[in-house]
Amino acid sequence: MKYRSRTEIVGLILEAANGGGGANKTKIMYKAFLSFAQLREYLTMLQDNGLIEYEGGKQTYRTTEKGMRLLHIYNKMYELVPPLTTIAVTDKDINIGHNSTSNDNDNGNDNDKNFVVNDN
Fold this sequence. Notes:
By secondary structure, the protein is α+β, with helices and mostly antiparallel strands. The chain has helices spanning 6-16, 25-31, 36-48, 65-80, and strands at residues 52-55, 60-63, 94-98, 113-117. The strands form two sheets. The protein has a two-stranded antiparallel ribbon with strand order 1-2. The longest helix has 16 residues, at 65-80. The protein is globular and about 40 Å long. It starts with 5 loop residues before the first helix and ends with a strand.
């Protein structure tokens, strides 16, 4: 999975808790792709900042009005400038070959080799 910013994770949590009756911890955890420990930390931070609220009777979390404003701003920002993507390089993408500027009298020393990344 690609690296996600804290802002992106907050957006996913607020979106998950934005439904009609809110969302329980399990639903939020799966929609935001978080472990239970990570979820607890984010829910605490979001509650402390008034972005999400816990409804004890239903055992659900619901995005507050302040959280909805943040979610709206986040979505507008995402439309203007999508998050940067990271490039994953696998072993098959890397070829070790001789450097074309290397010495012709190669004595088996690998010091004159370089890495070449395929553009496939």
